[in-house]
């Protein structure tokens, strides 16, 4: 284990051609464990239930993650107070607690701490550039105070807001990564992935890519488009993907948010560990070196990434002590026909059944064709009322 | 929270008509978190990584579990040493550590501690009744020393071995629950669920039922058969289910072990929280009052059981502070078409897509038609050799 | 081609161990061609559009059929006039025309003519044995006048009515075949397939089996149960299957009638020619020697049966001049990757995709649990009124 | 019925804004009936089995077709003799017989006769423009002699060859329709649908569109692209679709040929009549007025088109005498729960199950990325040899 303090920074590693493995999404993982509420998706657990957050950090570290992202997703004040969300902790308390937890666990291994900011309700509600940037700066103060190792602007649907975030982050002098939650069709205003990437690099991002909203192979495809455009523009950058652990062949431009199954019936779409190994391989072959995950990733998914790239990295993660490569642990199974599955060939070829013969294999996404600036997207501090819900229910029923 | 020591026992609760909520399966949950090795499936994590086991106990407690099962599955000495499994802890150390962890967390809430024993390689390899019983007694010594609140004989494929276990457990004077891992077709020797249940009750079980191997509704169906037979025989018992969190419409008598997807590609079969609420309701309607889970259950699945039965129990679990009933947390979502999903009607009707159009919806189970006593099922301490694997691979390939 | 008059009878052939290949269902095939109305399903086309019926006979003959069934399904007077069905021809005219067409085409090859009777609305409406038998006798008069070669009582849901039919047919001295439209669960009153078969043999049937309502392999399984019971009873008979050309894994006791897709959305369930070859093989292996088809069968399905059994029969059907065995005709395809499919191995292993990712793979059958004698099944001459339909629509909507 | 001779031509009808309904594909329909051999797909049945071809013409006429296409698909001499195909009739005999049959049936109703030419092995094997045009002219001589009402150049994968065909056909002075078998990705050389359409109109086509290779809605989408380009170019034309009756969501540019299921396992993809009504509506809404079908269409599919557009056309086809609109014939069904399906609402909402839980819903298309001029596509008169097949089998197996 690397001695604390001796760690090389993220750009040092990427410049040396090393693979940097990210972590998985905390919001979805902790929602299943009982510490995050779906809907607001806010990270108060960092302050409320630090033991749960610390344990998840540890599991990702053990699985091979080189970066501990502070659990500060949606921890901007405007989001913490949106639509009636009531919390016992301030944004500052949550952000600070999250930094401390990430640092504590990062110090237990060879991992860096990344402070993250995400898109804001302020932008969606058409607040000014100044106001939106102020929101980012407030979170940033904590990251600087806690001395994180790098900064990530992630989960942006509009490249314009992401540029603003990058500009704010860049001013700190820390390495900056920027990921949009977009697919091959580009951002919500139709800006192509290539143009998005060029704009982010120009705004100051050292690392660009995508996170969330689409499945791993779609994300790799999108970053390939970004890389081509950045290179064509004569710019330089590193590349990054932190996709969903859900299959999304049926998504339109807004990704899994628009799937009827979001967020409470996505289970049948969860990727297996073998599908994650394929993702890691494809990302690597595409020249992506910062390879992590987002919603739906559990520690074993990150371990699969680390196992697939163990030859390139030169070592296996700690959690592989509890995992036979390509299913070889099954050699110890009591039943001979299960021992017969202890091999790569078997798992690579398997097409896993859904066990749901009454269900379809794809859905028709929702999505009402509105984005920033549309009245339907104005945010509010007050809880949504029954009067506000009724027309939404009717509109939805009329579509199905 | 109930003061320690004042807790009522499991039979006291069941006799009063209360619902007792079990926990989920630790082996699968901890495998995904990186602490259990698939294949041997042994519980050394109780000694090796107590913080991970403690955290999982806490999540289930928070989700509504009334019983903390000691993480001692397959912790019999013959199993710990089977087929080359190498561990740094003795069976006794593991069993004791597991008891301490369960008790520590149980004391944080209104939960009981249950010590568990499971089927043994000794039985499968045709050891004598005396030898098999000796194996159970060895685990039992720890449970008595640690003063668990009840005992569970679970995961037995042959009713005969389960009877032996019940007899050993019963002698302690503790309440005894017994669950077989069977479906409507009965045990591996073709003994019907009804006859199995009668034999277990006669052997001394206070609570009978099934666990693992089949999906929730199949398990409920099986316990309904058991209950009918026990009542027809003029006997009395309480009933219990701890099913898989995986859909298994395509299973034959040995359940999910025989599915080609076992154990590394079961993801598409994972039940949603809404399907779990349906399970809880059906189990309750069938007269089952000990309602828990097994492999595949995550804390949110147990919370779904507790939420479905909150009217009957009179309270919600702690983790429901982070969960809007029937999706109502989505009222706080930023997108109006997602807020339109904030209602029971929506989630109850949804048929979730697999996102896997290249995959089937059912599989053809393996299973070589052999059981106890067959040469292919003799166990060994030594690791399986390549020479032993080769014919298994060939036999499997010939079938597919 | 065999000279007319020299043909050996059906029992002569079966007693000699030969395979007798039936034809496919005319009602469904002619509905798709525009000559039969779904709902009443009556065979007035025999008189109205003889050229269409003749052509279909010819196609089955060419495909290998040894039996031309007269197109007299549901041609009993009570059925022809049921629920407002208006026809320009009398039952006698239709029955006579159908006999003439079958004979004309049978004489073009080595085929026999079979006169068929089916279940009646009279039975469903609880008319007496005498009345029901009178209905059969009326149809029979035509068959005797036209001197058919054998008689078939087919498509009976209640063994009791089938027994009455067999008794009437047997009195003519002609060979009698009897098939129920049941699956492994038995007839609508729960009489097992085995008991049904024994009763039919005792009533005088020379050949027993099943037709319609279930897919080929389910029908073979049902006839296997029949054969076992007949043999156990020390009786002798020949065996016969004329299944659907639709997959029905999700059917309950009343078969495909209860599937939500019946009768206008069954397309995705149609068997391929390769699945038909598998059916023919399994039927043959089970000792069934009269092998034909029912609803959904097109001429190429019968050809597949004849091709699969060409070694046993010693010849190929005429239509195989236009079919390369096991896809070998593709050797002439212009595209090399299509020529690569010109082999048995390829088609046997292929799992054909549905092309319908938004659809499930199984349905939940309807079926209101009522049968003969229930008020909901009383038949009437008058057209169903809107007042009669409204409660049916409501009842159906409430279920879905 | 319209008196012979008084019929208005196809352009007269289209110019008046009327809907012209095409027929379905003869090759696939007659293959299932036993008269066409899959692989060569040649139309010798017109001479060999005229009664079968005549009957199919009649069924389409009855179903509502306004055009009888001569059954001359692939009846060019180079195709009739390709790869060992042995026929007892000359190309001229076949072409003449096909014209006579089409005319005979067209005269029984309000239908026109269309003579058709299709792509040639000569083009694929890189013969010169002159040679290819000579092939078309030879077929054309018969059409002129038999005085067909219009000419169709259909089933071209390369717009260049289609242009040559149109030029040859146009010289006759007859109305000319031209359809490519392409989808939204354009022709095999990547020419977009829009550019293809413009080139065909410039070459002299009065009607342009697509046929075969893709499902109905994909074809409509492709023709919409064509129409936009033609209008943008300031040209005028009528539009036409004759799609497959198979769902092809998984196709790449060469359409259903590349699906692993082609041509012997396409059954699960067959469209229902209700899906055909949707097709007719979408085509009409898109401004397409010549609406027909290709491979997979049975007469009831054409009837569905005619029924959907009966308000626009002012009448129902003759075959609707045997079809209750939107399932209303089921009002006469004996079972009440089947009568409950006698309504539009029911059939429009139904998502039909495949009945194949072991099969996927989509496939991965083959296709070796080669087209005109590639050695693998050179045609030959001699039968494909086993030596030629072996490498194809190996190449295919390596892919799967």
Overall residue-averaged pLDDT value of chain A: 93
By secondary-structure content and strand pairing, the structural class of chain A works out as alpha/beta
Portion in beta strands of chain A: 5-15%
CATH level-3 fold name of chain A: TIM Barrel
Major interchain interface with per-chain residue totals: A-B, 105 and 105 residues
Looking at CATH, the homologous superfamily of chain A is Homocysteine-binding-like domain
Q: Shape of chain A from CA axes?
A: globular
CATH class of chain A: Alpha Beta
Query: How many strand units of chain A?
Result: 8
Kindly state the percentage of residues in helix of chain A: 40-55%
Describe the 3D structure:
Four copies of one chain form a homotetramer. Chain A has one domain: TIM Barrel (Alpha-Beta Barrel). By secondary structure, chain A is of the alpha/beta class. In chain A, helix 9 runs parallel beside helix 10 (193-203). The radius of gyration of chain A is 21 Å and the shape is globular. Chain A contains 17 helices and eight strands.
